């Protein structure tokens, strides 16, 4: 949020010593004024201000991981994103919010303003809103570029996260962050949740032989892709895998995609430029063609959704009739939801224990839950230990599910085979 990186022009460095001292003093005073302004501007109590170390997540064996969420949306989705952010909030995690070119600058500023108004968000400074924007077509390849950009930014600004999770404004969690962190605590940090198959079926022709052009890669506005009249053969230099576009990637694999000296991630990025729904295949194909990573895949996206019959391009909007099956599914997230649908309110009340406008409840919330009159209070407006979590039955169930998935993968060793 607050950008305090300063660039000192070269010329300054050549000034006389006395001037240098003066310049230093002025800059130092500037910093002092800046930080004291920030502290005065906040509503943190003295004790909370002093406790900076307690706001840095501890890492190590037995400690929960740190998750980094890339949450993206488009025009009119700022409010939805903000609600989703609160629903998946935990002080350990890191969040990067992105509104694409469909949204106006005022909408992005408003989202950044909303983030700044929350005391907890300011105290932990673990949320960033992307200030600039660019066009994205979620059904083409520009969304892969946007996801990689989000991942690169998160690698750069936060050195401590373990997993990268992609969410859209239409997603919502169906477990608390305490549940999810608990389920991931004993998982080897190199695992990647990537739903995948090499059985392309009808997609072979429709997706991979057809050539598309995605104008959102080179125009300012979000535009829909168009299909070229030529077709091309299915590649034989690598094997294509396809699956769910919603992934949970290990830090090591994200680094592979962004920094690797191996040419595969870049080569595939260029190939997928002309593939419709590239987000359903890019990470799948990179990981399954990388011998050093393919054994780290878990063939599951931990998401719950329901297809209409016959299936449309997107799963159907979940409503109250789906509630039981959704909560019992054992998944971590569900999609898609209509803004403020009763099913979301029910999730807030019953699963996330989220006060109206509050964040999802966790063990770190240390405030009183009721006042003397028995009225509910937002326990998360003050905080305690952020290094321990308290899972409920759903969290334990998710941990068992993940343990079973990991065991299945290693026992059958058929990752990237089917
Ligand atoms: C991945 O698993 C296969 C099958 O168990 C094994 O042959 C291969 O050596 C493993 N690769 C790595 C990099 O560990
Ligand atoms: C939920 O959606 C399904 C399918 O769209 C519909 O048949 C059902 O009546 C809806 N239920 C409620 C409670 O709105």
Describe the structure.
The protein is of the alpha/beta class and 418 residues long. The protein has a single domain, classed as Spore Coat Polysaccharide Biosynthesis Protein SpsA, Chain A. Helix content is 38%, strand content 11%. The protein contains 16 helices and twelve strands. The strands form four sheets. A five-stranded mixed β-sheet has the order 3-2-1-4-9, sandwiched between helices. Strand 11, helix 14 and strand 12 form a beta-alpha-beta unit. The radius of gyration is 23 Å and the shape is globular. The chain starts with 9 loop residues before the first helix and ends in a 6-residue tail after the last helix. The N terminus is likely disordered. Bound molecules: 2-acetamido-2-deoxy-beta-D-glucopyranose (NAG) (2 copies). The site of one 2-acetamido-2-deoxy-beta-D-glucopyranose (NAG) has 4 residues, from helix 13.
| Helix vs. strand class | alpha/beta
Tell me the helix content. Answer: 25-40%
Q: Averaged pLDDT, please?
A: 89
Shape: globular
The largest sheet is: 5 strands, mixed
Beta-strand share of residues: 5-15%
The spatial strand order of the largest sheet comes to: 3-2-1-4-9
CATH topology: Spore Coat Polysaccharide Biosynthesis Protein SpsA, Chain A
- The CATH architecture category equals Alpha-Beta Complex
Number of helices: 16
The overall strand count is 12
CATH class (first level) name? Alpha Beta
What ligands are attached or bound here? 2-acetamido-2-deoxy-beta-D-glucopyranose
Distance between the termini: 44 Å
Uncertain stretches: 1-15, 35-42
Helix/strand order: HHHEHEHHEHEEHEHEEEHHHHEEHEHH
How many structural domains does the protein architecture include? 1
């Amino acid at each position: 949020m607050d950008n305090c990186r300063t660039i000192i022009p070269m010329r300054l460095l050549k000034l006389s010593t006395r001037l240098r001292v003066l310049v230093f003093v002025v800059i130092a005073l500037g910093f002092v004024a800046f930080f004291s302004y920030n502290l005065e501007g906040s509503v943190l109590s003295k004790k909370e201000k002093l406790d900076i170390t307690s706001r840095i997540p501890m890492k190590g064996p037995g400690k929960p991981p740190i998750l980094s969420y890339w949450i993206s949306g488009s025009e009119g989705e700022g409010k939805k994103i903000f609600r989703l952010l609160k629903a998946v909030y935990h002080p350990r995690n890191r969040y990067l919010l992105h509104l694409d070119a469909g949204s106006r600058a005022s909408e992005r500023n408003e989202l950044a303003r909303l983030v700044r108004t929350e005391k907890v968000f300011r105290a932990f400074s673990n949320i960033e809103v992307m200030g600039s924007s660019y066009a994205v077509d979620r059904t083409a390849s520009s969304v892969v570029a946007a996801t990689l950009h989000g991942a690169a930014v998160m690698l750069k600004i936060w050195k401590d996260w373990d997993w990268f999770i992609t969410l859209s404004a239409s997603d919502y969690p169906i477990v608390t962050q305490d549940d999810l962190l608990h389920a991931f605590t004993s998982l080897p940090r190199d695992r990647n949740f990537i739903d995948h198959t090499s059985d392309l079926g009808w997609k072979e022709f429709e997706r991979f032989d057809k050539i598309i052009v995605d104008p959102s890669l080179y125009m300012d506005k979000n535009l829909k892709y168009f299909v070229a009249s030529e077709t091309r053969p299915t590649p034989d230099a690598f094997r294509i895998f396809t699956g769910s576009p919603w992934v949970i990637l290990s830090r090591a694999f994200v680094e592979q995609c962004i920094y690797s000296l191996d040419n595969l991630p870049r080569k595939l990025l260029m190939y997928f430029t002309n593939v419709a729904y590239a987000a359903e295949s890019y990470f799948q194909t990179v990981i399954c063609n990388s011998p050093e990573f393919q054994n780290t895949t878990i063939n599951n996206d931990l998401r719950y959704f329901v297809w209409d019959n016959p299936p449309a391009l997107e799963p159907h909007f979940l409503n109250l009739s789906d509630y039981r099956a959704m909560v019992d599914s054992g998944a971590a997230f569900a999609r898609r939801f209509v803004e403020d649908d009763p099913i979301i309110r029910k999730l807030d009340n019953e699963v996330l224990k989220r006060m109206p406008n509050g964040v999802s409840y966790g063990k770190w919330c240390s405030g009183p839950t009721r006042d003397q009159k028995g009225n509910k209070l937002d326990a998360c407006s003050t905080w305690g230990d952020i290094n321990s979590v308290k899972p409920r039955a759903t969290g334990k169930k998710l941990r068992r599910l993940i343990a079973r998935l990991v065991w299945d993968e290693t026992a059958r060793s058929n990752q990237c085979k089917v």
